[in-house]
Amino acid sequence: MKRRSVTRGILCGTTAAMFSAMLQLSAFALSANIQFSDPSAKVGEEFTVSMHVQGDSAISNTDIVLSYDSEKMEFVSGDSASGSGGELTVKNSGGEGKSDVYYSLRFKALKDGSAAVQVKSAKLADSNQEATIAHQGSAAITIAAADATAGSSAAETAAAPTEATGPLSNLSLNPGTLTPAFSAGNTAYTAVVGEEVTRIAVNAVPAAEGAKVNVTGNENLKLGENKIEVNVLGSDNSALGTYTIVVTKQQGTTPETAPIEDSTHVTIGTTSYTIADSFDQALLPAGYESESFIYGDRTVQAGKGPDEHLHLIYLLADGGSGNLYFYDDTSRTWSPYVQVGATAKAVSVVPLPEGVAVPEGLLVKQVTLNGKTVDGYIGQKDQGQNYCVFYGMNSKGEKGFYRFDLQEKTLQRYFPGDGAGQSTAEQLRAQYKVSHRKIVGLTCALVLAIGAAIYAFLRGARRKSPELAERERRRAERKAARAAEELLQRQEQEALQKTTSEEVESHTEEVLAGAAEQATEAEEPSPQQPEEIVLADDQVAVVPPEYTAADSAADDLGATRVLPQLDMSEHVRETLEEARNTADAITAQAQAVNGKKNTSGDEVFEDINL
Hints:
- The protein has helices at residues 2-27, 154-159, 424-431, 436-462, 466-523, 549-556, 570-593, and strands spanning 31-36, 40-42, 46-59, 61-68, 73-78, 81-84, 87-92, 98-109, 113-125, 132-136, 138-144, 168-174, 188-193, 201-206, 212-216, 224-233, 239-249, 265-268, 271-275, 289-295, 298-304, 310-316, 322-328, 333-336, 339-340, 347-349, 362-369, 372-379, 387-393, 399-405, 411-413, 532-536, 539-542.
- It is α+β, with helices and mostly antiparallel strands.
């Protein structure tokens, strides 16, 4: 029975371990997205299609087969790409890999019209497992005729800014500068002023004759955000529209913001980028939606997330490779879009707002996260060997400092004092190149397996078969019956001994009393006459008076019983002997009862007839 329980325990433990391992693989399954840009060109020109491969973790092996319209476009060159005749392969293997990779594919426009680049097959994997393709986009290319004038293609026409109409023909602040620049069709703006400003003068010019303007919220400004509303009313007091200006009052003086002169190009560091009019909306991360954003004098496609001041805009570098960048419309700063952590709880690296101090113990230094260089911070003692700190924003729009473990690729909130030095745990993790999540997963699987085995073993040890349970029940009943019988036996023996003792004592007293009475009678004086014994014809013997018939009867009893030295009659002696024989019989019968057994083998008492 124990062997069967142990076997059951082992099977349960193995099943639990396999189930835990499956959960671990499911929880850590690699997921990836493939996305493309949507360029435009004229016949005879070369253009670049940017393919963006993004995974939950580093992708070390890439094997993607693409198809394209060979009648309208011709493949020229590309990163890790080869092929022709409508099909090409992007293949990259080996190395540490990155979780965010852009591939530039160069084509030449052959014929006007619409063309596409699509994924025919894709295999992406890291060092342990193959990725699941969560999103698989495609590139839409617009090719214009060769004689078309500059900017007359369908894509350019659709993306070109137009003079939108609105209830205001002009809007300005004093002090402060509107961001973005005023456009009649745009009703949402921001501005930044210094702590010395308590009131802002709003200059709003209605577009319709007879219309009037009502401004609220421009006085008694407090530190932080202030909302100014410009309501435009018609001559009949009908509402024509409302413009909203979010003014941030910060410590210090009001910054001097110059108008954006070049709305087509932007320089970040030493690299010059071109602002794309549009891009594949699938490139936007979760929580962001496409919007039309006015940058300078252009309307471009952007991504709007939980922070209304941060916009995701697609920038193209020389050679056609593109990437998403954060644009902060309050500070007019740019930073690469980088997400750190699991997709469900990813944190985006955002620029450090003005007025937010760097925690003590950290040094400003650019760090590389997911293959992109961003502004970050390192510990004075650690010097960026094991961790770095960056300013980020979660999916809820909450901002703060985050600490990223460079060895285990784990992320957590950073609090002042965390960067004082390198802990013992960090030193140990730096020595071993083992993935933390695998260690945790295997440990959980082992604990579950051991727990399941122990539980099954204990449960199996307690569980009995019906036959064994029935035998134990009968054994328990027999044991209880035997205990009851033994108790009854002891009680009957005690009662028997007591009864026998009382009867013997009573009988003995009666016998002794009778013997004493006879002895008293015998002691009474009576004339003793010698008995004549005839010996012969001529002889007569005389018997002494001391030798009586009672003495002769006592001599006949022999040596088996030694009676008290009393002068008893024959009747008294027989009575006493009978009492003693009765006592011996009772004792023998009681001893014999103890050895009797019934047919089932259990000891029982029988009725005793006394």
